[in-house]
Structures are given as C-alpha cells and as structure tokens.
Amino acid sequence: MTVETAAAKEETRPEPNIGRSWHVVLPPLCYLAVGVAMVAYTRAVPLDSIESGSLDLPFVLRRTWEHIRLVFFSTVLVLAVALPLGVLLTRRALRRATPLVLSLVNLGQAIPSVGMVVLLAVLFQIGFWTAVAALFAYSLLPTLRNTMVGIEQVDPRLVDAGRGIGMSAAGVLFKVELPMAAPVILSGVRTTLVLNVGTAGIAAFIGAGGLGDLITAGVSTQRNLVLVTGCVLIAVLALLLDWLGGLAQRLLSPKGLS
User: Would you call 150 helix, strand, or coil by DSSP?
Assistant: First the structure.
C-alpha cells in the first residue's frame, strides 16, 4: 500500500458519531450515578430530626435548582460582558486600555470569594442577585482573557487574506478570527462554569440559597452526612457542567481545531 493510498483512506474514514461514542456518554452517567447513590444513601440510613430536615428530598432538589440558577445567570452575564469586551480589547483603537481593564478584572479574583460576597451584601443587600454579581466578578477573568488570547493567536496572514479578498473588518472577525479562536474561548467558558459551580456554595452566607445551605447546615450542626452530601452534589454538578462544556467545545470548534 502506497503512502498516497493510506492517506486517502485516512481522509475518507468517517468520523465517530459523538452521540454514540461510549467514551463521551459514560462520564456523565458515572457522575449522575454518584449523585443518585449519595441521595439514595441518605434515604436509606437512619437520620435524626436535624438530618431529616436538611436532607429531605424536596429540600435538596430545591437547593440544587437554586444552585443551577445562580450558575446560569452569572455565566450568562460573564458571556454578555467578556466576549464583546475581549473582542474590543483586541482592536487596535482600544489596545492601550487592555492593562487597565485587566487590572480591574483581576481584582475580582484577587479578593477572596467569601469577602466579595460579604462586601457586596454590605454595600447593597443580601439575596440572589447580590450572589450573582459576586460570582460574575469572580469568574469574569478566564473568559475575557481566553477571548483575547484566542483572537490574538490567529495567524495574521489569514486576516490579511480575508481583507485581501474584499471582506470587511466585521466579516473577517466573524468568519475568520472568531471561528479560529473558538477552542480557546470555549476553554475559558468551561473554566468559568466550573468556577461558578464551586463558588456558588458561598451564596448561602447571604441567604441566596443553593447547595451551600447543606454545607453550612452540616458545619453549624456538626452533621457530617449533611456536609458530605452538599460537597458531593456540588462536585457532581461541576463535573456535569464541565462535561457539557467539553461537548460544546468539541461540537462548536471548527474541524481540525477541536
């Protein structure tokens, strides 16, 4: 078999179906199995009155939904701000503002997450949207930085080629730069998601709900089962969202770049 024939067969070989690949489907099933097993264990073992109140299934499901809402709204805000801002900071007219903007954004991660939540609660009020604002400030940097890095690493010759065939600046951005930068940008979004899931646990300190309520209840009442349940469910949620982010990164990245 010649080298040319082997290369032709390699090129015509069909790509595996992502939805049917066991190595893609197996991880989330394992994560869900761990979460279900943890909840089932809490239903099977004897519980005292305090543990029963904290591990009641409707209560746990409500706190899980609150946690998902915190992550969803904070991540949407990050995407709405970080993506356009990252693009603007790579344009020649605004590059001088990059150090100042990054310094301000870095403050979000320089301040401890608990301190950020408490500070915003003192300045404004306790509740859901204050926690969302704290999560937004804490997780903005990865998506913003990856957006800038992804666009800046696009080969300038590709940009020049696009302009050379008559494409506008916007056309080059949306048809050349952003598609080429998609893997790096989506990697930053995955990091933001995982950061938000873990950090959302501190929302319980200002009455914003979430699975952090289980952790704080377990610590304050010295009930290890309640504490461990909250930690396991947050870890499972983080792994599931990271898997979804990885799947989106694989599907949305241009072929050959994922």
Answer: helix
